[in-house]
Amino acid sequence: MAYDWQPLILTLKLATVTTAILFLIGVPLAYWLAFGRFRLKAAVEALVAMPLVLPPSVLGFYLLLAFSPKNAFGRFLDETFGLRLVFSFEGLVVASVLFSLPFMVHPVQSGFQNLPRSLTEAAYTLGLSRWKTLTRILLPNIKPSLLAGAVISFAHTIGEFGVVLMMGGSIPGVTRVASIAIYDEVESLNYDAANFYAFVLFALSFSILLAVFFINKRALGPH
Amino acid sequence: MLELSLRKNLHTAEGNVTLDIELEAETGQFLTLFGRSGVGKTTCLRCIAGLTEPDHGRIAVGGEIWFDRTKGIDIPPQKRRVGFVFQDYALFPNLSVRENLRIALGDPKDERYLDELLELMDIRELERRLPTTLSGGQQQRVALARALARRPRLLLLDEPLSALDGETRQRLQNEILRIQRHFRMTTLMVSHDLGEVYRLSDRVIVIEGGRTVARGRPAEVFSNRRISGKFQFTGEVVAVEPNDVVFTLSILIGNRVVQVIATAQEMQDIQVGDTVMLVSKAFNPLVMKVDRNPGRLSPSRS
Question: Structure pTM?
Answer without folding.
Answer: 0.78
